[in-house]
């Protein structure tokens, strides 16, 4: 193998595929990046066996070939080189990297030992913009389950139904549902691991460029620009989330998102000290009072609201409110309540493409 | 106690004194900030018994008084308030904090239990600009000893001699000496704890405003703007550093600081893998070759230099070079050598106010 390429292109490609490199593995080859030079392209691949990322860059290939190099060391060295042309050559399993007057030699690994990514027939493709996919991930992923008690809840439901794409995450205490219209005559339902979506959202740009999505029974493939990301899907049935979201309410509060967030953040300073994260809402007429108590003190916060319906007293884990208020992209929001033991639903005032549901704490 | 003040002023004052708050203490009162309202001022004080910081802000004081509040909780709450007027009132050891429609109550501690800072007679004052003091700290502090085997080396020597102010740090492997002229007819020598100077450098601004410095046999006092910082000094004699710095050399290399830093950083990637941090210099005629080796590979770097004298082969711990090259503020530097077992001296080409000395590794 022997090729030259631009440092910046190579660095970006390494940054992309490194997101799939395994950090805690006993299988040493997974700490590496597979580099393949074919004709006028260099293809980089990394995988931890659950998630695989492949990307290519333009290069001047003098001799086709392949090698596996340690991802961390190779990445750090390339990053520290000046922005110039890099030459990479493999002789007897030694990888020579040259740039200006710098020369780096590392021992490579046999490319035949590198696991190949599952091959996926790219028949049915769904299309969505990078920016939209990023937002759908960001607005739901925080609500996935953090423990593995029910593995299916560590993923996000990807559902296409009746021309809508729905992302759903829930952990038993709250649920986040983000919807966008999509062009598709087919319905589909699959659960994508949270880790996969978290890494993808770091690679996606806030741009209108298209991501193509394909499924097999066990895998999902994302294709955009020069990059392919393949992940296994989670086994099992997702919870029937439609049964959980209430379709009516007894009272509805309209409130400024930022004022509510600031007040809850201050109240949660003490709630945190008490280790319960407990905050109480007292809603009546034109104001909402938020309080929290602990051994060392108490907080009282008052916010102006618009109320439809009767008042209510209800308590929550403050973290579940802070999480959603930090990511919701709307100036004003609705809070919908029924009783002090039934869930609160958070919606945007200016759009119905986002629903967040949170269970109260019984006092 | 009862006063009102601007949120921003109070927040800045908290940020300043918090640098002396003790984090790992069994003496609970040291986790607090002493707040004293006197006439039209509010004075905040924190100390960990080694380091004490006191600062004051303007305030409308309705009732003089004092209280101790938990530093972390108080600081976080004030920080999260809007930029507005804050009212603070103490009733029966409860501290009431009000701002707009937010109200926070925390239990305070008895101010009489808070240790008072040593009182210092501000007779002889040395003056230096904030920016200069910041730089003198930054360019020496990285060379202090990290372990407590010889406690005196965990401090920086503050020496005034013959109209020069010298800061000296050394750890047995390298030495950093920064000098500036100062107006003083007296000579002085004291060793200031590294931790004190590290916290001070985070409070100082890059401005021409003056810092006044006073000594007692056991303490040092820094005064600037509304702030006083008092620290104990380290006991014992500092090493006679003048004996260590060689006053001649056999060969001298002129080199671009950034090129040398980049090359050494790349070489140290492998040096680090080998866990020795070992890099080798081979200096001859108009070039300097830097190499490093480990089981998994090797790096070869070549840099253009101007050489006075004969060539040399010499080896170093790369970390000791990276540290100084990251902070030295000069485009071009001199490296002065005598033999492969005697120290290398690093100097700036455009000034003689900085000397760094590093011991080689014997091969």
Automatic annotation (TrEMBL), chains A, B:
<comment type="similarity">
    <text>Belongs to the beta sliding clamp family.</text>
</comment>
<dbReference type="InterPro" id="IPR022634">
    <property type="entry name" value="DNA_polIII_beta_N"/>
</dbReference>
<feature type="domain" description="DNA polymerase III beta sliding clamp C-terminal">
    <location>
        <begin position="242"/>
        <end position="362"/>
    </location>
</feature>
<dbReference type="GO" id="GO:0003887">
    <property type="term" value="F:DNA-directed DNA polymerase activity"/>
</dbReference>
<dbReference type="GO" id="GO:0008408">
    <property type="term" value="F:3'-5' exonuclease activity"/>
</dbReference>
<dbReference type="InterPro" id="IPR046938">
    <property type="entry name" value="DNA_clamp_sf"/>
</dbReference>
<dbReference type="InterPro" id="IPR001001">
    <property type="entry name" value="DNA_polIII_beta"/>
</dbReference>
<dbReference type="InterPro" id="IPR022635">
    <property type="entry name" value="DNA_polIII_beta_C"/>
</dbReference>
<keyword id="KW-0963">Cytoplasm</keyword>
<dbReference type="GO" id="GO:0006271">
    <property type="term" value="P:DNA strand elongation involved in DNA replication"/>
</dbReference>
<feature type="domain" description="DNA polymerase III beta sliding clamp N-terminal">
    <location>
        <begin position="1"/>
        <end position="118"/>
    </location>
</feature>
<dbReference type="Pfam" id="PF00712">
    <property type="entry name" value="DNA_pol3_beta"/>
</dbReference>
<keyword id="KW-0235">DNA replication</keyword>
<keyword id="KW-0238">DNA-binding</keyword>
<keyword id="KW-0548">Nucleotidyltransferase</keyword>
<dbReference type="GO" id="GO:0005737">
    <property type="term" value="C:cytoplasm"/>
</dbReference>
<dbReference type="GO" id="GO:0009360">
    <property type="term" value="C:DNA polymerase III complex"/>
</dbReference>
<dbReference type="Pfam" id="PF02768">
    <property type="entry name" value="DNA_pol3_beta_3"/>
</dbReference>
<protein>
    <recommendedName>
        <fullName>Beta sliding clamp</fullName>
    </recommendedName>
</protein>
<keyword id="KW-0239">DNA-directed DNA polymerase</keyword>
<dbReference type="Pfam" id="PF02767">
    <property type="entry name" value="DNA_pol3_beta_2"/>
</dbReference>
<comment type="function">
    <text>Confers DNA tethering and processivity to DNA polymerases and other proteins. Acts as a clamp, forming a ring around DNA (a reaction catalyzed by the clamp-loading complex) which diffuses in an ATP-independent manner freely and bidirectionally along dsDNA. Initially characterized for its ability to contact the catalytic subunit of DNA polymerase III (Pol III), a complex, multichain enzyme responsible for most of the replicative synthesis in bacteria; Pol III exhibits 3'-5' exonuclease proofreading activity.</text>
</comment>
<feature type="domain" description="DNA polymerase III beta sliding clamp central">
    <location>
        <begin position="127"/>
        <end position="238"/>
    </location>
</feature>
<dbReference type="InterPro" id="IPR022637">
    <property type="entry name" value="DNA_polIII_beta_cen"/>
</dbReference>
<dbReference type="GO" id="GO:0003677">
    <property type="term" value="F:DNA binding"/>
</dbReference>
<comment type="subunit">
    <text>Forms a ring-shaped head-to-tail homodimer around DNA.</text>
</comment>
<keyword id="KW-0808">Transferase</keyword>
């Amino acid at each position: 193998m022997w090729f030259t390429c631009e440092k910046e292109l190579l660095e970006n490609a390494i940054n992309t595929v490194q997101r799939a490199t395994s950090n805690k593995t006993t299988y040493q080859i997974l700490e590496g990046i597979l580099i393949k030079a074919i004709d006028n392209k260099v293809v980089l691949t990394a995988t931890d066996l659950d998630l695989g990322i492949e990307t290519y860059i333009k290069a001047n290939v003098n001799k086709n070939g392949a090698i596996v190099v340690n991802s961390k060391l190779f990445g750090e060295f390339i990053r520290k080189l000046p922005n110039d042309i890099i030459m990479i050559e493999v002789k007897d399993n030694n990888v020579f990297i040259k740039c200006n007057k710098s020369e780096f030699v590392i021992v490579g690994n046999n490319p035949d030992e590198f696991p190949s990514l599952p091959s996926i027939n790219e028949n049915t493709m769904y299309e969505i913009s990078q920016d939209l996919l990023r937002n759908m991930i960001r607005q739901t992923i925080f609500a996935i389950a953090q423990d593995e008690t029910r593995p299916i809840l560590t993923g996000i439901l990807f559902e296409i139904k009746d021309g809508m794409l729905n992302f759903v995450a829930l952990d038993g205490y709250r649920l986040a549902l983000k919807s966008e219209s999509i062009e598709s005559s087919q319905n589909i339902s699959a659960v994508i691991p949270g880790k996969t979506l978290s890494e993808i959202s770091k690679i996606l740009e806030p741009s209108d460029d298209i991501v193509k999505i394909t499924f097999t029974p066990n895998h999902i493939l994302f294709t955009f620009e020069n990059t392919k990301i393949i992940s296994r899907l989670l086994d099992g049935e997702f919870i029937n989330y439609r049964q959980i979201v209430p379709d009516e309410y007894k009272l509805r509060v309209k409130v400024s998102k930022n004022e509510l967030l600031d007040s809850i953040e201050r109240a949660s300073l003490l709630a945190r000290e008490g280790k319960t994260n407990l905050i109480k809402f007292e809603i009546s007429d034109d104001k909402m009072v938020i309080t929290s108590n602990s051994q060392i003190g108490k907080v009282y916060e008052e916010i102006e609201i618009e109320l439809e319906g009767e008042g209510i007293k209800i308590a929550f884990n403050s973290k579940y409110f802070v999480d959603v208020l930090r990511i919701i992209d709307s100036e004003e929001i609705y809070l919908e309540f029924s009783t002090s033991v039934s869930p609160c639903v958070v919606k945007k005032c200016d759009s119905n493409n986002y629903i967040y549901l949170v269970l109260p704490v019984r006092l």
